[in-house]
Structures
1.
Amino acid sequence: QIQGMPYGNCLLLSDGPINNSTGIPFFYVTPKDNTVTDLLKNPMASLTLPEADGNFCRKNVIDPEDARCARLTLTGQMVTVPPEEVEFAKQAMFSRHPVVRKWPRSYEWFFMKMNIEHIWLQSWYGEVSPIAVEE
């Protein structure tokens, strides 16, 4: 009933090992997940990250998902990580989320990443500022 409709999901992500952040979101996914099935058909996606560590929200003890806290939205194409980047993706994901090493291998896990095309920073109740991808 929701075929062709936008669909959200929570996925673990990493932009690199703790000492080597790249800004490129990597994901460890399974084709058994409907989200991944959809992304393999239509790779356009968006990712919104709340201001978890910003000064305003932390200082005022405000929930990071509160509209007064900043959030960053990335949009772009989700692609399978090419073979030459798999080792980096593995280090990125496993160093930040060690639990994934214990996930059942029968689920055919593989790595995807987002090729970012647009970045928007929303800093307060709807004020949105575009940020150049190069930045």
Note: The CA atoms of residues 19 and 26 lie 15 Å apart.
2.
Amino acid sequence: IHGSGGYDSDFSDDNGDGDSSEKARERKREGEILQKPFEKGRHPKVAHRSLHSCEVDREEARNRRAHLISMNAFERHKKFVGDYILYYGGQMADFRRSAAKDKTDQDVLRENHRFLWRDEDEEDMTWEKEVAKKYYDKLFKEYCIADLSRYKENKFGFRWRTENEVVSGK
């Protein structure tokens, strides 16, 4: 519109009366004046190869860190074990733990359950005994349920009522 290519801007310093090459020279001269003597030019020499490899290593480390942070603890563990096996050799079977000694909470309760707990029983409490005692404390001990189906064989069973049985009135 002002004869310089058909585009106009309300924010330009241009009044349409100057040559664009003259403004470019003026801008370049201002840049030279404002440049500090210890500053390097806009286009320095090509960087050294070691600087480039150092930057690449930093970028790769940053990417690895971001990848590890995005994983949960178990996935991170599996990755580290896999990397260890790749580097040092071996098999995944060496790292699998044996499930033969595993016990559920129910197994622990069965082994350490007592129908009646006394104050003397609370001495030397192990973790298993504490679990059994907590379960005992939660039971409703007003009435017990007895199984006398084998009383002729001198076998009988007692147990405390559970919360559902108390609510239902059993």
Note: The beta strands are 140-147, 157-161.
3.
Amino acid sequence: AMKNPVPQAASLLLEKLLLLVHIRPLPAGSGGETPPPAPGYYDTSCFKRGDLLEVPRTLFIHFGIYLGENRVAHMMPDILPAITGDRQQIQQVVTNKRLILGVIARTASVRVDTVEDFAYGGSILVNHMDRLFEDQKLVGTTAYSLLWNNCEHFVTFCRYGAPVSFQTEKFCETVKMIIRDQRSVLASVLVGLASIVCLGVAPSTTLPTIFIPFFLWMAG
């Protein structure tokens, strides 16, 4: 018998959401969230106050500002600030479910966590962006957008005074390139059709040249 496709589709959607918000999905059969490393897992002696910390994730990079004394300020998508004012509850480590719902609700919190809670087991790069810039601490609930107001905008504003996200710029350039490519195909099709109308029926050998790009464009 065929399996019910609904649970499979729901599982696939959840996996895509997890990838979208740079969180690795839990292993099959896992009963809960994987806890962050114990204190002391990271050597913070090489960090200086104001250092920009980067943690590579599955698709994106998470950013924070080192405040000294094993504390990192960073912006995390989080649903709890939108539904409760309990600071003690909000300050607990953000779980995958809270993070995903925060992305969907476009709500985030600017929070201060330990290096362990911030990095969550990932490797840390320090001041990797300094070469891209020539030189304010914000804590509390704020609006969140994966493209226009994310953790990279937050840390570049704090350290360099300009909210910039190179990940967003790269994504937008890719989208623009795709749109330009599709427009060029459509333009070629329209020119071909216009030549048929003005000059008569085109030879049979040229018809595939006109219509194949059109069908490819429609399929894309």
Note: The longest strand covers residues 61-68.
